[in-house]
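Data availability (excerpt). The following record was deposited with the supplementary files.
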Amino acid sequence: MVAIVVFHVVMLLLVWVLGVELCQRNSSSNMLGYLHKTIGITTPSLKQVRTVALIWIGSTIIIVDGFLFLLVFITKLSNPG
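Predicted structure:
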């Protein structure tokens, strides 16, 4: 339970840092560049870095929460008592 809360706090801190622009665009562009090159997709331009980073963070939150929901749902079905 603590890990879930820590995960969400870290993600919200990342969103806040990107939203307030506390970090430089070059550093966040480099991080996104590594991620995009690993996956094999085109890296975003400097204008699109913040938007793409927020989309990645939101997608990660939705995927992790979806997996946790399915885990709880499936375990409830297999053990109804």
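Summary of structural features: The chain has a mean pLDDT of 88.
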